[in-house]
Amino acid sequence: EKRTITLIEKNGYHDSVYINAAKIFQGIHTEKRKDRMLVRYGDDSVSPMMTFKDEYSQRVSYELAFNALKYQDLLEEILLDSCVYPCHSIPEELTSLLVVMLYDLQERKFQAREIFDEEEPVAEVQKIERYLYRYMTKLAAALARCRIKHSALSIEYILPEDVRKQEQRASALPLCVWINTFKISLEDVFRDLKKKGFTRVESVSDFDRYTYCVDQHCHDVLVFPSSLKKELLNLDLFADCKLLLQ
């Protein structure tokens, strides 16, 4: 039976992912000069304690936090332009959560979150979610104004050109995957991938759609085309941590 994992495609994350992503973002967000500090993030002098449900939850928490960091200026502009921030009912300690969840909300095209498997709700996440949903129209309008101002088809075009080039280079790199030999043998991985429709080829130069090769230096490392990331992460091999994305 196919298990449901932490991320339900484009429909949002579990509450615990948002909380952990907010804690990560709190420690890495860009500090502005006091005379330019319009959005305040509270005190981050104490290292946050994080508990991750599994390896997948950990990775998506970091991805969400770093995506929020990448678009921090834009997200702050949306909050200020829409007059959603500041809000007396949202303490500074929850600003990181507000920014992280706003990034995810616009990534979902302002569609409501839909999680199918149950997890204990987190009060802070529920509070921020209700607040964002209440002002979705204003937030979407503020994002549209930002795109018009920057003549941008999507938010990616609002990023500085050097950052966009880095993104393009990174997205084109092949995916390296470790085989967790404590849980599965190489032969069983090859057999499972074959059942899933993947073809083993000799090298990266032979890549087609559903293909992979074995790293020539590390025989417990597999290399896949970058376009297969989402398909790979939905395999049971990843859900069971038998394969680990590098």
UniProtKB/TrEMBL annotation:
> Domain named NOL1/NOP2/NSUN 5/7 ferredoxin-like: which ranges?
176-246
GO annotation, biological process:
methylation
Look up the domain of life of the source: Eukaryota
Keywords of the record, alphabetical order, are: Methyltransferase, Transferase
GO molecular function terms noted in the UniProt entry: methyltransferase activity
Q: Which Gene3D superfamilies match?
A: Sun protein, domain 3
**Which Pfam families does the record associate with it?**
NSUN5_fdxn-like
Q: What is this protein called?
A: NSUN7 methyltransferase
Q: Which organism is it from?
A: Pluvianellus socialis (Magellanic plover)
**What would be the name of the gene that encodes this protein?**
Nsun7
